[in-house]
Amino acid sequence: MTFRDWQELTPAAAARELHRRVITLLPPAQQRAAIAELPSESELAARFSNAPAAVPLARVPCLVKDLFDVGGQPTFAGSTFLPEVRPTRATDGAFVQAVRRAGAVIAGKTHMHEFAYGITGENAHYGNVEHPRFPGRTTGGSSSGSAAVVAAGIVPLALGSDTGGSVRLPAAFCGLYGFRLAPRGPWISDAVPLAPSYDTAGWFTANASDLKASIAALVGLGRSDREPRGCYLAMPGVDPEIAAACERQARPFAAPAETAVRENLLQGFASAVDTYNTIVAQEAWAYHQPWAERYQSRYSAPVWQRLIRAHTLTPAQIEAAQVNTVAIRALWERFFTAHDFLVLPASPAPALTPSECTLENRGRILALTAPASIGGLPVLSIPVPLASGLTSGLQIIVNATTSPVVRWVLENVASKV
Questions:
Q1: 297 assigned to active site
Q2: Percent with pLDDT over 70 in the chain
Q3: What is the pLDDT of residues 392-402, one digit of tens each?
Q4: Which three-class secondary structure state does DSSP give residue 346?
């Protein structure tokens, strides 16, 4: 169901339909894994009734990744203990406030990879979130629950966050459209952080027209009187099937990068994964340090191991990450003097099975997503269909959230996917 389909329902019918979809479209174990909080049908009907009417997203149901605060509800961020060390807010966080003002109905909250410190959608506390159409494969993370509820057709809009690909990768794995904003924005500033230098707000929809409508309502769509100029960068480490499908989908609107541009970008991006991992380890530990050792037993083992990686960083590694950050951002600035956008694959493989959720594949994913994260750049994600029925995605990287490229792609490219 599209935004418009939901808007045509009465409040009671919308609440009833949403509950029906949860029960029929997700098995019980996946309901527990994906959904952190779901109001009763009567409460939902009241929310639909009370939603603003004459606004763009009027009565569009939306689920919220559980690192954004909804007033009066505890925020767990995929953990079992966060409300014990972080007070529950009496009021909505900034992102939720903005979405409500645009008319959307907050219809519950979604689970996520614990503390957003992972990209696979695994969670030892609530269960691993699976691809709704391909059980046994992950949605990707960390916005795993949000991706699952849109991909399953439960709601047409779900909020996520993206630090190192947490909107882009689930969008690619689940065949969704997604948009991530830029770090340090007001909508992410009061959410539970992973690494503030890279954390961004973002969201998912199931189709291009709904993504366009949501971007227009929330941040605005830029316009230009000329066709944007961009290019496609083929990246190493991508499965041949994915590489061919992404290049084919990008070809109508983004020619392959010229040799000099390609060489400069690949050389500059070579340090991105190490740089990203170092900065995230430092900043994640800084947030968790006040309580981490007291609550060590309450963290899952993989997340704890990532957190304490900060203790192993050497001064040389930290200095290298700082130097590489400056160099990568300068590389992006030079690129955007001659181009309006860069297109990269969003995943090196289709949705992973549990046995494929390895450190090696995590590194392959970050090699694609970390460059834009380090650059602090907004990214539009569109799906890439594969012959198997699975999907990958394209990252369309721009230099501003209101870049005219976003409108142009959604109107001229994404609508044809």
A1: no
A2: 99
A3: 999 999 999 99
A4: coil
Residue 57's contacts (CB-CB under 8 Å, 6 or more residues apart) are 3, 99, 102, 103, 104, 157, 213, 214, 217
Q: Is 416 a catalytic residue?
A: no
Strand 379-385 vs strand 177-180: parallel, antiparallel, or unpaired? antiparallel
What's the whole-model pTM score? 0.97
Q: Which two tokens stand for residue 208?
A: 């291009």
User: Which is catalytic among the residues 79, 109, 142, 143?
Assistant: 142
Span 191-207, pLDDT tens digits: 999 999 999 999 999 99
Q: Which residue is catalytic, options 65, 143, 144, 214?
A: 65
pLDDT in tens, 331-354: 999 999 999 999 999 999 999 999
Class at the top of the CATH hierarchy for domain 1-417: alpha beta
Looking at residue 415, its pLDDT comes to: 65
Our answer to whether residue 143 is catalytic in this structure is no
**Domain ranges (residues) in the chain:** 1-417
Choosing from 143, 166, 197, 214, the catalytic residue is 166
